[in-house]
C-alpha cells in the first residue's frame, strides 16, 4: 500500500491514503518508501551532510567518547537547502493530514549520525515530555519526520517502537538529576540530548507495554521516510556495525500549539519564530 | 533440514547430517532448533541459573555498571548438573563431528546473562586469539556451543556473525593496553572478559569483511543451540530491550590441542585437567 502513498489517493488535502492515515493513528508510526513524499529529500540532505557535520558549535553534540558527532541541531535554521526540504508540498501535505489539517512549522530539526562502530544508544523514551517541560508546548500535536540517509537494518541501531503506545499519554518516568557521565561541564540543556535519557520511562512500564504490544524496528533503504508520534515509546540501540545509520529529523508542530515557554532553550532546540510554512512544489512531490 | 539434526541421519558417528556439517564448515556457525541434541539442555540449565547467578566470587564478572551480572565462568567445574550436560551423547557426538572425530573436553564454560535493559555489548572479535595468547592452545580446533536460555530476537542483543570469516585466520587487531574503564582494580585477566575487547579487530578489516560476506544474527526460541567456530568474526549489541538474553556457553577443545601455557589464568577460564569427556545417554539425545 505504501507504494501508492505519493499523490495517487485522490485526496486533495495531501498524498496519504485514508488507509495510511488510519495505520498511523493505530500504530503511532508510518514507514514510507523512498520517493513517496519528495523525490529530492535524500539527495539534498546527503549533499548538505559533510558541511553540517564539520560545523563546530553548541548545536553539534558529541557522543560520550568526546570525539564522534552524535547529532547536529537546528538545520532548518542554518541550512537553506534543508529549510527548503521542510517545505516540500507533498511532505507538508502528509504532515498536515496527520495533524488534522493544521498549519505547521518546524519546532526542531537535527541529524542523528549513529556513526559506524561508535553511534551510541537512545534509551527508551517519549519525545513530547521534553517539548512539554522544556518549551511548554501545550499538546502533543507534533509529528516526527525521519528521513533515512543510510539503509536501516537490524544491525545498525534501528529505531525501535512499541506500537500503539502513542495513545498512552505521559508514561511514568524517573527524572534523572544532574548531568550525564561525560557531559559534566556542558550546559543544562545538553542533558536532554545524550545516550542517558533525562526522563527515563520506568522499566516495569516498558516491559508491560512491550509484552502487550510487541516491538517493531522499521527498516528500509536510504530515502525511506518514517513518520512517528511524539508520544510513542521508542529507543534505539548503539550502532556496533561497520555501516552508518544517519537520519535527518524534522519535528513539525501545529501553529495552534506554540511554545508557552521561550528563551529557556537555544533556538536550535526550539524554534522561536513558529511561523506556518508555505509549501514549495507540487503536492505529489514529483 | 535442521529438524532432522537429531539422530535421524543414519551417521553412526553423531547426530548431524552431512549437509549440516557442510553448512558449518562453509559458514562457521550452525543453528539447531530446541531438542536437536539433548532434550534436557534448557531445563537443566534454567534450573541451575538462579544458584549460578548468586554465587559471588572471581568467576562472576559484572557489567561496567558494577551491579548487573555479565557472565559467570567455570560452570562445568562448579555445577555437577551442568557438567553432566557437557557430556550428553548427542551433544558430544555433534561436537566430535565438527572437530574431525577428535576426543574433546570443555576448556571453558560460562553463562552470558545479557540482562534486560542492562546487558552490555561484546565488541567485534574472534575468540581463538584469547585462547592462543592466554592459554597457548596450539590450533583453533575448538567449538563454541551456545544454548539459548531465552528467546533470541533482533531486539535483545543477538550474536552477530560475519559468515565465512572462520577461515580467514587471525585478523589484524589492536591489543588494547591497560584495564578497561570500570575495571581498573581488577586482575589482569578480567581485561579479556568485558564490553571493551582486549584484541580489537581493526575497523577497516571488519568493514571489508562485512561488505564481502554480510552479517547474520541467528535467532530462535529458548533451547535453540548455536554452534560456532572460534575464529568466526562476531559481536553482539547491548540489550536495551525489556527481555533477557541469557546464553549458556561450552567451549569444547580437542584433546590433541591441550594448553601449552597453564596456571596463567584461573581454572574457571582455562580448564587445567583437559580430560576427554565420556558420553552420557544415547547419541540421539532422547
From TrEMBL, chains A, B:
The keyword Lipid metabolism does not apply. It comes from the Bacteria. SUPFAM superfamilies: Clavaminate synthase-like (SSF51197). The keyword Lipid metabolism does not apply. GO terms for molecular function: 2-oxoglutarate-dependent dioxygenase activity; iron ion binding. Keywords: Dioxygenase, Oxidoreductase. PANTHER family: ECTOINE DIOXYGENASE, PHYTANOYL-COA DIOXYGENASE DOMAIN CONTAINING 1. This is Phytanoyl-CoA dioxygenase. It comes from Streptomyces kaniharaensis.
Amino acid at each position: 500500500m505504501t507504494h501508492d502513498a505519493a499523490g495517487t489517493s485522490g485526496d486533495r488535502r495531501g498524498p496519504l491514503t485514508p488507509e495510511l492515515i488510519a495505520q498511523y493513528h493505530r500504530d503511532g508510526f508510518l514507514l514510507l518508501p523512498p520517493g513517496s513524499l519528495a523525490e529530492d529529500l535524500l539527495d539534498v540532505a546527503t549533499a548538505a551532510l559533510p558541511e553540517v557535520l564539520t560545523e563546530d558549535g553548541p548545536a553539534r553534540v558529541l557522543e560520550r567518547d568526546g570525539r564522534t558527532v552524535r547529532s547536529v541541531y537546528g538545520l532548518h535554521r542554518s541550512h537553506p537547502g534543508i529549510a527548503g526540504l521542510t517545505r516540500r508540498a507533498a511532505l507538508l501535505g502528509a504532515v498536515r493530514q496527520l495533524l488534522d489539517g493544521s498549519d505547521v512549522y518546524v519546532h526542531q530539526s537535527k541529524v542523528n549520525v549513529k556513526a559506524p562502530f561508535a553511534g551510541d544508544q537512545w534509551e527508551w523514551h517519549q519525545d513530547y515530555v521534553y517539548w512539554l517541560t522544556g518549551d511548554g508546548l501545550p499538546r502533543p500535536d507534533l509529528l516526527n519526520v525521519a528521513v533515512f540517509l543510510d539503509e536501516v537494518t537490524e544491525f545498525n541501531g534501528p529505531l525501535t517502537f512499541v506500537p500503539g503506545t502513542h495513545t498512552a499519554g505521559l508514561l511514568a518516568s524517573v527524572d534523572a538529576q544532574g548531568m550525564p557521565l561525560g557531559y559534566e561541564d556542558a550546559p543544562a540543556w545538553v542533558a536532554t540530548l545524550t545516550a542517558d535519557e533525562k526522563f527515563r520511562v520506568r522499566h516495569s512500564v516498558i516491559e508491560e507495554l512491550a509484552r502487550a504490544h510487541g516491538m517493531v524496528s522499521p527498516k528500509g533503504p536510504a530515502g525511506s521516510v518514517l513518520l512517528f508520534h511524539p508520544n510513542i515509546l521508542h529507543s534505539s540501540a548503539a550502532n556496533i556495525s561497520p555501516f552508518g545509520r544517519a537520519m535527518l529529523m524534522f519535528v513539525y508542530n501545529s501553529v495552534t500549539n506554540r511554545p508557552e515557554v521561550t528563551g529557556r532553550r537555544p533556538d536550535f532546540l526550539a524554534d522561536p519564530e513558529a511561523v506556518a510554512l508555505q509549501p514549495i512544489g507540487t503536492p505529489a512531490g514529483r
